[in-house]
User: What shape does this take?
Amino acid sequence: MVEEQLVPRGIHQQATLEAMSTVPRHLFVEDAMQARAYGDHPLPIGGGQTISQPFIVALMTQALQLEGHERVLEIGTGSGYQAAVLSRMCERVYTIERLDPLLVRARKLFDRLHYHNIASRIDDGTSGWADEAPFAAILVTAGGPKIPEPLVEQLADPGRLVIPVGEQNVQDLQLVTKQDGEVQIRTLEQVRFVSLVGAHGWED
Ligand code: SAH
Assistant: This one.
């Protein structure tokens, strides 16, 4: 997966490549899908949600430019795979999921794999996690109509936020950077994510 899908497409950050070589992706997909876990595509994880294609996970992770000391907020725990990858590359991950059965399953995997630097909770992640803010990096793994304002507020300075923004069936993957009080936005890639549902996302 790393050699054939990530490196040739420009994923070069060593920490991202190492984390994605280490985390056992097959444990995060449904049993019936395990043989396809390392394929070049997204997969269903239950509840109408999906685990992203490995390249997209890598692209989003690399864009955060983590060095190891950061506290990172993720919105949309899903299978827990992205949080697991992040947890190998930073000090602590805070991840929020709105669907209880998915979070229950992800938490079991974090325990089983001894990934103890992941905090998680059930909530609407579009409002962020104010008690633990600010975060040096924020990653949203569901697509919203706009960048949720609370997430920009909870981003540290300097800080990097990655989020798919656009229509419900296609979005721009946007990188928001905060530096010296200035916020800049640029588009990295066109992507297709499931919907970000919440107060600062799509309506339920
Ligand atoms: N990062 C996940 C991908 C999950 S798909 C992984 O590695 O598997 C996106 C997830 O975002 C879904 O599980 C969905 O339930 C969740 N989601 C959507 N809107 C949300 C919100 N407002 N707050 C928290 N989670 C949300």
DSSP finds six helices and nine strands in the chain. The two ends are 35 Å apart (CA to CA).
